[in-house]
Amino acid sequence: MQVLKFGGTSVGTPERIKEVAALINDGQPKVVVLSAMTGTTNALVEISEYLYKKNHDGANEKIALLEQKYYTVVDELYKTAPFKQKGRELIQTHFDYIRSFSRDVFTLFEEKEVLAQGELMSTALMQYHLEEMGVQSDLISALNFMRIDKEGEPDEFYIRENLKRELNQLGNFYLVITQGFICRNAQGMIDNLQRGGSDYSASIMGAALQVDEIQIWTDIDGVHTNDPRVVENTHAISELSFDEAAELAYFGAKILHPTCVTPAKIANIPVRIKNTLEPSAPGTLITGTCTKQRIRAIAAKDGITAIKIKSGRMLMAHGFLRKVFEIFETYKTSIDMITTSEVGMSVTIDNDKYLDEIVEDLKKYGTVEVEKNQVIICVVGDLIADNKGIAASVFNAVQEVPLRMISYGGSNHNISMLVKAEYKKQALVALSNNLFNDQKSK
Ligand code: ADP
Ligand code: ASP
Ligand code: MG
Fold first, then answer.
1. Ligand 2 test: best mutation among 35, 115, 146, 205, most atoms within 8 Å of CB?
2. Which ligand is the nearest neighbour of the Cα of 34?
3. What is the CATH number that goes with domain 2-219?
4. How high is the pLDDT of residue 438?
5. Which helix (H) or strand (E) holds 368?
6. Where in the sequence of the chain do the CATH 3.40.1160.10 domains occur?
7. Would you say 306 and 405 are in contact if contact means Cβ atoms under 8 Å apart?
8. Is the pTM higher than 0.90?
9. Which residue minimizes the CA distance to atom 5 of ligand 2?
C-alpha cells in the first residue's frame, strides 16, 4: 500500500482535482492525503485576523469572496445536477460554520477550527467527484485518528491504532481519501500540524501503516538544488538521503514541511517527491542511502533572530551553557545555530514570541544584543566524509557577503551561515554560481 499526498496547487482548480482523481484511480489501493485548495488556508488566516480584531464586515467580505470561489469550483467540477446540488450544500454548510464565528469570542482555538475547513472541503469535494465518476472510494476524517500530545508532537500510538481501526471498519478498501494538516490536540480540540503540515500528515500516516512508499505530489518535479523562486536554472535532485532532506526541509526548502522526513526516516520508508503537473518526471527519491556526493543543495530559512550574550566573567565556566539553554527551554523556544568564544556566545531562534522575556532572563549572565531580520543559508551534502576543500569552496563563493555566524561539523550534512536578510539573494546566487556552474541569478 502507498500513501500519496497532494498539495494545494495539485487540487487548486476543478481541472486539477479531476487530474488527481485520474492519477489515483490506477487499480492500486492507497490512502490519499489532500491539502486545502491553493490560497484557501491563506484566505482563512486572513479571515481569522479580521475576526480577532472583531472586524466582522472585513471578515464577512472575505468569507463571501472565498465562498463564491467554491461555488464556481462546484459548478465546474460536477457534471450532474444531484452532485452540483450536493456540492453546493457542502460549501454552504462549511461557510455557514465559518460565518458563525463572527458571533463568538475568537481565540487561537476558534482559528484552528476555521483553518481546518480548507482540508475538510477539498477532501469532501474530491470524494463527491470520485462518487460521481463511479470510482469506489471512502472518505475518512483525520480528526478521528490524527492527534498531537501535550508537547505538540504526533501521538504515534494513538494515530496508529485509530487509523488502523478506521481502515478496518471500511473492510475491503481501495481508495481512501483523508485530510492533511488537521488533527486534534491532547484535549481533543481541533488543531493542526502547522503551515505546510500536510506533508507531515502523510509521513506520519505512512509510518503508522508501514507502507511501501510515501509520495508527496506537488507543483515541481522534485527537490531542487536551490530555491527556484530566487535562483534560475536550478534542477531536481534524483536521490537524497533522509538526513540531507531533513536538513533542507528544516533550513527552509519550502517543498517539504520541516519535520516531515522524520517519521519516514524512523520507519525507513522511502519518500518520493512527484510533480502533479508532470507525472512522468522521475522526481526525487529520499531513502536511507547517502550518495556520498559532496554538495547537493542549498536552502535558506528566513525570519531568524540572532542573540549574542557577552560576559567576561562567567562565560564558558562549567554550567554556563546549561543555564543559558534552560532559559530557552522555559520559553519553549528552539535554538537553530550556536557559536561560542571565550567571551561571548551567539544563538539563533526562528520564533521570537518570547524574545523580550528571554532577553530579560539572559541579562543575568552578561550583556545581550539582539539582531532581527537574519537568514540562515544552509549548504547540504556529504560534507565531512571527503571534505578537503569543501569549506573553502563554500566560503570562497560567499566572499562578498558579510557572514554573521558560521556552523560546521554539527552534522555531516550541513554548513550553515547567518547573513542579514538583505544579503540572502546574493548569497544564494553566489553559492549556486560557484557550486553548481549552470545556475544564474533570476
Ligand atoms: P504544496 O502546496 O504542494 O505543498 P509548496 O508550495 O508547499 O507545495 O512547495 C512547493 C514549492 O516549494 C515549489 O513550487 C517551489 O517554489 C518551492 N521550493 C522552495 N525551495 C525548493 C527546492 N529546493 N526545491 C523545490 N521546490 C522548492
Ligand atoms: N493547507 C495547509 C497550508 O496551506 C497545509 C498544507 O498545505 O500542507 O499550510
Ligand atoms: Mg507544502
1. 35
2. 2
3. 3.40.1160.10
4. 47
5. strand 367-381
6. 2-219
7. yes
8. yes
9. 196
